[in-house]
Structure formats: C-alpha cells, structure tokens
Amino acid sequence: MTNATSRIRTLTRLTVTNRVSAVYLALVGGAMAVAAAEPLFATGPDASLIWVWPALFTFPAFGFVAWLGEAGWGGEAPTWFLIGGIVLSALVQSLALGAVWQTLRGRRGDRARLTTAN
C-alpha cells in the first residue's frame, strides 16, 4: 500500500467510519432529508426556513460557506452552492470530530495500559 493510499484511508476512517462521525453525519443527513421533503408537505411562506437546521448543524464551518456566498452572489447564492456547502462543511467537521475522538480514545488506551503495567 502506498503512502498516499494510507493517508486517504486514514482520512476516510476519521471522517466516516468511527461512531462519533457517523452519528454526526446521520444527524446532518437527516436534517437535510427533512428539509428536502418539507416542500412536499408544507406550502407556506416559511417552508424554506427549514434549511436553517442543516446549516446550524454544520456551523461554524458553514459560516465560511455563507460568507463566500455573500461575497460571490451578494446574498443570492444558488441552491447548489448552499447545499454543497452544507455537505462539505459536514465532512470537514466530521473529520475534526473523528480526529478528536481518536485522540481521546488513544489517551484513554494509554491510561489503561499504564495502570495495568504498574
């Protein structure tokens, strides 16, 4: 296995395949599914406000995406940009959560090894 393949596997493992990241991505995915289905059930003027929840679940990373949308389109960013930004923000934050989770698990494992060694 090459070094690049090893790095890609590590990033994938940290982003998707640990418990914390999987729960987070399921939460964001569920919020996006509910937001996408909302127009089928509600036709009021506030129906589009449901997209605030996926954006909030991906904050603070989505704050950068919103800033880019404001700078590029003056507050009228296309839907594809905002949805893509939510997905990208969720993946970035999932990677961060996976890294923190691995670090905490490593420390707990180190403590357990130290107590059994004494």
UniProtKB/TrEMBL annotation:
Q: Which residues cross the membrane?
A: 20-37, 49-68, 80-101
Species of origin: Streptomyces tendae
Q: Which InterPro entries match?
A: DUF7942
Pfam families from the entry? DUF7942
UniProt keyword list: Membrane, Transmembrane, Transmembrane helix
Protein name per UniProt = SCO4225 family membrane protein
Top-rank taxon, per record: Bacteria
